[in-house]
Design a protein that fits this description.
Length: about 80
């Protein structure tokens, strides 16, 4: 079992991204994973997942979702 990390932000806090592609953007914390030390910020760090067509789904699609970022890459705003 991993030790839970102490995280300096809470759900609902406004944070500013300090590193990475979304640097200097501001968003609200929507989810926290204390085991991995990662957070999900609403409207930040979008990733795409390409889904192939299969027997049930005749057409493929591209789904967009918010990926988690490490809590050390944000600061309170």
């Amino acid at each position: 079992m991993r030790k839970q990390q102490k995280i300096h932000v809470k759900i609902g806090d406004n944070v500013k991204i300090i590193t990475g592609f979304d640097k200097n953007k501001i968003g609200k914390v929507s989810k926290i994973d204390r085991n991995t030390g990662k957070i999900i910020v609403k409207g930040i760090n979008f990733k795409f997942k390409h889904i192939k067509p299969n027997a049930e789904n005749e057409v493929g699609e591209i789904k967009q979702f918010e990926a988690p970022i490490h809590h050390s890459n944000v600061k309170l705003n």
